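User: Please predict structures.

Assistant: First:
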Amino acid sequence: MGVKVIQYRGDYDDKLYWERVDRNLGWLGDSAEEQRRRQERLRDSVIGIVGTGGIGGAVATRLVRMGARHLKLADPDEFDITNIQRQLGASLENVGRNKAEVVAEMAYELTKDVNIDVYPEGITPDTAEHFMADCDFVMDQMEFYQVKNRYALHRAFRASDRCQFMFKIPTVGHKVFVFTYTKESMPIEEVYDLPEDGPIDDAAARRLMERIIPEMPEYPGTKMLDEWFVDMQRMPIFGACPPLAEGILVERLAQEIMDLPGRAALPVQPGYAVFDSLTWESKLVERAWWAK
């Protein structure tokens, strides 16, 4: 049985394209040629987004607004009532609909000049390689407790001759973490140090917490966070934080694609970058404490 893919194919109008991305150009170079060359890099890149919820869904539409024209979206989940608090596309009308399909419709309708492939079955060992094909960059915004499917995605990334890097950007409380995976960084299997077919029991849930959240907030306390992350296996998300993560993710991705000078080098796994909107602190960490 083949991989299910829903395709949107837009009609490209070069004049209209350059008119709609005009406001980008002033920050992209010291000449019109340099500006257009950098914008074309974004226009022509194929960007994969795995997980189209609170961060991934907004990233998809923001990229289209900025001038990206080739997206691949994957998410097996359907919108529910709790998603309305933070997720683009979540509404009473869309409860029960596939997230990737809704986001693709919204992204396509913005400009109708984009090409979008939708994987409504999400990423699995059977779909990961197919999804990764042709991707230049991939954003891993897959659900927190996925292990087997995330391993499959990362194996497909490492086997790809084309995909340059992957970002994983979770929100925790008021913090945004930026994890960068390259072909030389620590593989996800070593980061998690969990069997891909093992149960997500209390020990596994705590391992995921320390790997994905290398700096736990001081408030609320450990007992309350354990209730959510371990007992209920539900990740609490402060509704104002996903838009912050969206901005950081799209800004950094565009900087990399366009090769903008002056950008800081981000640590790769097991290092990370973090911004805390509560304390207004940011930093680059070369290695997580557990990898030392």
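Second:
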Amino acid sequence: MTVPTRDSPRIASLVPSVTELLFDLGLGPWIVARTGFCIHPREAVAAVPKVGGTKDVKLEALRALAPTHVVVNVDENEWPTVQALHEFVPEVIVTHPCAPEDNLTLYEQMAQAFGALPGVHERAQALATRLREGLAALEGAGPWPLQRVLYCIWREPWMTVARDTYISRLLACVNWQTWPEVTGGARGAARYPVFDWDEARRAGVDTVLLSSEPYRFGGRHREEVAQALPGARVLLVDGEMLSWYGSRAVAGLAYLKALAQTGEPASGR
């Protein structure tokens, strides 16, 4: 087992998918803080102190843990929080993957920050190889028929994703084009627009994907949507597989491929 020394980094992750990535890169012994939404790998994160949520970080609790590095994300964390971190954290690492291939940059970003620790570069390179293989497998399985897809992330109000989000660009790998055809910009609420079902009907949506997160859609919601959008296919899907970047992205590509090929989620949800 690797034992941290006095000069070792003290890493806090405020991004659930990056927390999982850090553990997969072998950085578990150096992780000193996480959010309550950082739940993978389940057994390992249980021993790491929680410092609130992604949107409501408990800054004083985090300060007390004396992190040398804090990993944040443009979509996940609030800008005032990031500004406050700069007051007491030597290195704030900002991440913002917006497409599956951006994971290659993310792996390299973590390797650059923590590559002095044993095995990190090698694990990052192995992940990059697997991601490239997954992307090639998706491309090689095509051509994919065009689908107009509505990906639901919230209810009351109903919310979806703009086309310049990670989720939308992942779905585009199998020619599933998200509706509405809008972009949301670098950050902010416009990346996750509100919609109504009358608009969706007029747009001719083919498939509705009800995600397991951040809102946990279930069977009763599937029935509700089927009534609101007659004729459309409605699927319950694993939000972690379709929205988490980092190491989960490798499995996410395979999950999407199976979903596009069979029309049913591989997890059986």
